[in-house]
Amino acid sequence: MTKQATPTPSRAGAEEASSTGVIEKETVETADRAQLQREHEEKKAEQKGRIEELDAETLLKLLHQMILIRRFEEKCAESYSLGKIGGFCHLYIGQEAVAVGALAAIREDDYVLTSYRDHGHALVRGTSPDEIMAELYGKASGCSAGKGGSMHLFDAEKNFLGGHAIVGGQIPLATGVAFASKYKGTDQVTLCFFGEAAVNQGAFHESMNMAQLWRLPCIYICENNQYGMGTSLERAMSLQDVSQKACAYELASEFIDGMDVLAVREVVARAAERARKHYLPTLLEVRTYRFMGHSMSDPGNYRSRAEIEKYQERDPIKLFTASLREKNILDDNRLAEIENEVREAIEHATRFADESPEPDPKELYTHIYANQ
Ligand SMILES: Cc1ncc(C[n+]2csc(CCOP(=O)(O)OP(=O)(O)O)c2C)c(N)n1
Ligand SMILES: [Mg+2]
């Protein structure tokens, strides 16, 4: 039997979309403010329950990392508009809680791979903002020697194995990294991040099958931001509950709210234990939202204002800041200190990138793998 085609979602406000994907004018649809406020209160209550399990220093570090990503990405948007960053540039604004929460749950010697939306993961992994910004500027001092750009950040010393521009390309690679850890008898875990559009590919399914069959210590984290470029999940995926896809391969799986940094941390910590102690993989579906366009060149004419407003009300930084304030862990002074530290780091990174030299043309012939 043929399935009915899903109707095209509302295009209200399409004409007013800005170059960053945020629709600026009022549209026919508007968000139900009271309902959004109720949801915010519920989420805060859930998050406050989790706050009790962690000390203030750890909590403030998580906030600091999320704010660092947000401000770094805002700076990237500015530098891109000034023509200082070339090529594609995919911002992580709105999704900060995923990388921050997940990486807080693993060890420094574990491995991390992700897609082209990689600035946040590299920052949290510990690659310096200087080296990341320089890479975005295509400078020799960048973490990939200026040859990778925004989509191919790489830092072998931090076990950050990219930054991959081919959708889903990192999934079989991460599976191989996890295989290597098991083969060598280490207890290292591999974290593999990817978008929900990657799930429709064969490489995802082959990897799930092998990971479970061979019991590989890999955690597959689907950052479900509900869009693959301008195509909504509903228009591209027959079974939209990504975590359910694990059933086909008997993998452990969980679904988490990706706007709650502590919820993400908790669930990844559970998966890491499963991987480290029992060599068992997990598929996690983390529901999140990107506030900006797919990339800097996305006119963003496929989302309604109401939808964007709904998720802005669930902003992971706004939620966490409110929860920490109510628990008396954060006040205006501490928040201002964090913002200042972040601003200084980003100003430093931008200056460093600006002043760094271009790669020597001879570098075109290094780092090349050719099989004859
Ligand atoms: C194999 C492959 N097909 C198509 C593309 C073009 N493309 C780049 S990003 C993208 C959408 C991916 O969406 P998703 O996996 O949900 O990640 P998100 O951008 O939402 O983080 C597509 C189709 C590509 N880079 N690689
Ligand atoms: Mg997506």
If helices are DSSP runs of H or I spanning 4 or more residues, what is the number of helices? 12
Helix content: 40-55%
Gross geometry:
globular
Portion in beta strands: 5-15%
Could you name the CATH topology?
Answer: Rossmann fold
Query: Which residues sit in consecutive blocks of at least 5 with pLDDT less than 50?
Result: 1-28
N- to C-terminal distance: 50 Å
Task: Write the H/E string, N to C.
Answer: HHHEHHEHEHEEEHEHEHHH
Mean pLDDT: 91
Number of strands: 8
Class inferred from helices and paired strands: alpha/beta
Query: What does the main sheet amount to?
Result: 6 strands, parallel
Give structural notes.
By secondary structure, the chain is of the alpha/beta class. It has a single domain (55-348), classed as Rossmann fold (3-Layer(aba) Sandwich). The protein has twelve helices and eight strands. The strands form two sheets. A six-stranded parallel sheet has the order 2-1-3-4-8-7, sandwiched between helices. A two-stranded antiparallel sheet has the order 5-6. Strand 5 and strand 6 (231-232) form a beta hairpin. Helix 2 packs across helix 4 (119-125) and helix 6 packs parallel to helix 7 (202-213). 47% of the residues are buried. Residues 1-28 have low confidence and may be disordered. The site of magnesium ion has 6 residues, from strand 5.
